């Protein structure tokens, strides 16, 4: 019978103490040493290096410059969006303000007409005169502008022709009588001026010119 070699060689059996607590000191042993394993690699235990450590100073500066340019562009875009938003809000606010004021002033136009007729008739006196002038000052302060005078060139955008004739005394369509003044608020026409319009005689249609009585 052949003797088989011992599993542990020719020496004495090796006993490995795998207890985590040292029975003599009562301290926790290091796992790797207690298990009899190899000591950990110091290089593997180190934290991963920052990628910026792997590139040169010039490359780092280029990356920082690019990042700064991107952040600056973002801030400029945000600022432009805010400015545009503020402009829209201010424009809408002003438009709403003009609509409200225009509605109020439109309701006062008839009162202003009455004041004008009373002034022309010489009836604007005493307390009534003071109140009327106060109303006119308030409407002017709110931006109401009166327009429409005899001699104005007729403009269909701001004039409403209630009467029409031909005259040798004008060289273009002209308002020769203002029946009711017009009013505007800013660029908005609250009411067109209602006028009588005279056109030059040479613009008289041929048939009508033949029937015109000689002077």
TrEMBL record:
UniProt xrefs under HAMAP family: GrpE
Taxonomic placement: Bacteria, Bacillati, Actinomycetota, Actinomycetes, Propionibacteriales
Span of the signal peptide: none
Functional summary from the UniProt entry: Participates actively in the response to hyperosmotic and heat shock by preventing the aggregation of stress-denatured proteins, in association with DnaK and GrpE. It is the nucleotide exchange factor for DnaK and may function as a thermosensor. Unfolded proteins bind initially to DnaJ; upon interaction with the DnaJ-bound protein, DnaK hydrolyzes its bound ATP, resulting in the formation of a stable complex. GrpE releases ADP from DnaK; ATP binding to DnaK triggers the release of the substrate protein, thus completing the reaction cycle.
Transmembrane segments: none
Keywords noted in UniProt: Chaperone, Coiled coil, Cytoplasm, Stress response
Gene3D superfamilies assigned: 3.90.20.20, Head domain of nucleotide exchange factor GrpE
Gene that encodes the chain: grpE
Protein name (database record): Protein GrpE
Region feature (Disordered): 1-56
Localization terms from the record: Cytoplasm
Subunit structure and binding partners: Homodimer.
Species, as recorded: Kribbella deserti
């Amino acid at each position: 019978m052949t003797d088989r070699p011992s599993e542990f060689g020719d020496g004495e059996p090796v006993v490995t103490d795998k207890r985590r607590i040292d029975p003599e000191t009562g301290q926790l042993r290091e796992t790797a040493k207690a298990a009899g394993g190899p000591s950990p690699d110091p290089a593997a235990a180190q934290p991963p290096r920052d990628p910026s450590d792997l590139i040169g100073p010039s490359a780092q500066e280029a990356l920082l410059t690019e990042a700064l340019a991107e952040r600056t562009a973002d801030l400029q875009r945000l600022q432009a969006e805010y400015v545009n938003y503020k402009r829209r809000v201010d424009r809408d606010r002003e438009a709403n303000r003009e609509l409200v004021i225009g509605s109020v002033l439109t309701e006062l136009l008839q009162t202003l007409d009455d004041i004008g007729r009373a002034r022309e008739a010489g009836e604007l006196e005493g307390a009534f005169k003071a109140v009327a002038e106060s109303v006119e000052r308030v409407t002017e302060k709110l931006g109401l502008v009166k327009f429409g005078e005899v001699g104005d060139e007729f403009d269909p955008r701001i004039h409403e022709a209630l009467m029409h004739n031909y005259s040798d005394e004008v060289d273009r369509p002209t308002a020769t009588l203002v029946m009711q003044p017009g009013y505007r608020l800013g660029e908005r026409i609250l009411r067109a001026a209602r006028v009588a319009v005279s056109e030059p005689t040479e613009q008289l249609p041929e048939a009508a010119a033949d029937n015109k009585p000689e002077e």
